[in-house]
Amino acid sequence: MIWGLEDLSDKSFQKRVWANIDNVDGELSSFTETVCQLFDDTGLGRKLDRDQQLYHVSPENRSKLIRLRRLIASVPHFASQLEIIDHPKMDVIRVLSKEILHSLNDSTQ
């Protein structure tokens, strides 16, 4: 979950890896892949859908994850990676992802 939030919070990463701009290391990813890793591969989306307990996630972060998921759904996944990166909702997604990430990091220390 942490990696997905890191990727969603970092515009320079998104441009480098998702849009392949100045990507000298050959990293590969995309908006869709990041979202699938965060919500599908981890089972997070299923737990949110079923209102199941998320261990080590506060009720506040759970609400933020639900909001994040809704915001992500409002971004046109069929657009180019640059269009996705520059989409107005992505600014809010980046901020919210950073908030969740910082809160999760603080709770594990």
List keywords for this structure.
single chain; 109 residues; mainly alpha; 7 helices; globular
Quick structural gist:
It contains seven helices and no strands. With 109 residues, the protein is mostly helical. Helix 1 runs antiparallel to helix 3, helix 1 packs across helix 7 and helix 5 runs antiparallel to helix 7.
Describe this structure in words.
The chain is about 65% helix and about 0% strand. The protein has about 110 residues and is an all-alpha fold. The chain has one domain (about 1-105). Helix 1 packs antiparallel against helix 3 (about 30-40) and helix 5 runs antiparallel to helix 7. The chain is globular.
Number of helices: 7
Q: What is the mean pLDDT?
A: 94
In oligomeric terms, what are we looking at?
single chain
Structural class: mainly alpha
Largest sheet geometry: none
Distance between the termini: 17 Å
User: Quick one: overall form?
Assistant: globular
Share of residues in strands: under 5%
Q: Can you count the beta strands?
A: 0
- Percent of residues in helices comes to 55-70%
- Tally of structural domains: 1
Spell the H/E element sequence: HHHHHHH
**Rg, Cα atoms, Å:** 14 Å
Give the uncertain stretches in residue-range form: none
